[in-house]
Design a protein that fits this description.
The protein starts with 16 loop residues before the first helix and ends in a 7-residue tail after the last helix. By secondary structure, it is an all-alpha fold. It contains seven helices and no strands. The mean pLDDT is 85.
Amino acid sequence: MIELQKLNSSQVKKEHKKLYQWACFICAEGEEERAMIEKDPYIEEAIRELELLERDPERMDEYLFRQKNLSDYVTQMEYSREEGLKEGEYTKIIEQIQKKMQRGKTEAEIADALEEDPQTIASICRLIRLYPSSSKEEIYKVWQNKPGTI
């Protein structure tokens, strides 16, 4: 975390100078503060682009719309990843339950061996008995009450 108000350019190490300049640019409020920033060609280009956006409400709306879409995309990807991890974890558990049931283990023994909640194991075991030829993925979908499965 950098607190720019507490940091002046003389305290910044040479190798961090560019980062400091960009941080100042990002935090600048208005043209006066931007004009005071020691610039490199990339910051100058960013300033020109920002000035164009500020003068053209239509371009600004397009930019904000694009930023919102990118943010929504990132949020959706994070959610999908979490769901995928959860599904992977439970399909592995379902596979282990199926194997243990084939070996004649009881629900309590399975719950103990897998260190899982006995009620969770019992509900999955019920589905495995109801749909013995279904895959672990199909059992997971039914267990999650997803429509259009099995």
